[in-house]
Amino acid sequence: MQRVYEFFRRHPTWVDSFWAVVLLGISAMSGSARGGEATSASTAVAVPITVLLCLVIALRRWIPEKMLLLAAVLGLAQLVLDMAVVPADFAMLVIVYTVAADGARWASRFGLVAGLCAAPLSQIRWPDQHSSGLGQVLAAVFLSVPFALAWVLGDSIRTRRAYFAQLEERAARLEKEREAQAKVAVAAERARIARELHDVVAHNVSVMVVQADGAAYVLDAAPDQAKKALETISGTGRQALAEMRRLLGVLRTGEHQESGEYVPQPDVEQLDDLIEQCRTSGLPVDYKVEGTPRPLPSGVELTAYRIVQEALTNTRKHGGPNTGASVRLVYFDDGLGLLVEDDGKGAPHELYEDGGVDGQGHGLIGMRERVGMVGGTLDAGPRPGGGFRISALLPLKPAH
């Protein structure tokens, strides 16, 4: 039974054809019941009109506008040829409903007008001799009501379909917007994690490499210095692991994390430790703080720390031997200024001019992204007298 229902739901024209045959049978039985009242001439007119009216029922969903015009022509033919109303005229009501629900707007309006005119015209063509003028008017109004109701029902179904179509379209649009926002959020999170990984790995690994090279160089001649270098490597490695655990914690949503498992994110107060670590690894750093230190937004403090960390890492990587660096931290009323300079040979031009070539320059890209996130500005490039210079201004209020 379910299969039969699904078949007819997918093939509504078959259902309409069935009802057209039923209507044709009812019309035939009605004609037979009248018997001798019908002449051969009236039968010759009634049969094709009845068949065509049943055809209107069968094809109403397929070509509703054309079937409406056919029904209107058949109705006029009945008036002109003086053909009495037959059961097949029920097709007039059906086609008015159909064009109101599924047809073009012009067809819907035309169907309403034609349906409302059908009853008055029939009263004029076949007046009731036993009724007064008022009675005939009331009869015309009464006979027009079914056409009006059929049109209202069809138009309400059209409106309801349009409403649900708008809801579906809106839901689909919102779903696409949510997917786009999710992709943007994922991309932003991936970029943030990539920046953190780069800053943590690049700085700490570079310190460990320098210390390891130094330890190997003085291992035989100065065991105490080699031991100190190895201790620095160990401490740097532990620090890197702690920061990696903190970073990876954002990926472990839903898992229970024990209190104190991850260290807080770096801030300006930890710049002293960072610079001391650089000095221990063999990079002389002059550090100055100007203005009155005060608590800053966590995003600004993390950005300042990472800029200094990456700048000193670049100095260690690209500055060459006997390179010194200076870090200047300036507290303004409405912002925090950073200036990191070195007197080395400087980074390759493509790292700061093209934003990185062949996978290089991620540190500078990350710095620009960090500064942009807090609404600040960053400038990076070679110094006129040699070396490299990075300056940044971080506002204390986010940009609007």
From TrEMBL:
Residues 157-191 form a coiled coil. It catalyses: ATP + protein L-histidine = ADP + protein N-phospho-L-histidine. One of its GO terms (molecular function) is protein dimerization activity. CDD domains: HATPase_UhpB-NarQ-NarX-like. Residues 200-398 form the Histidine kinase domain. It comes from the Bacteria. Its EC number is 2.7.13.3. Keywords: ATP-binding, Coiled coil, Kinase, Membrane, Nucleotide-binding, Phosphoprotein, Transferase, Transmembrane, Transmembrane helix, Two-component regulatory system. PANTHER family: NITRATE/NITRITE SENSOR PROTEIN NARX-RELATED, NITRATE_NITRITE SENSOR PROTEIN NARQ. This is histidine kinase. It comes from Streptomyces sp. R21.
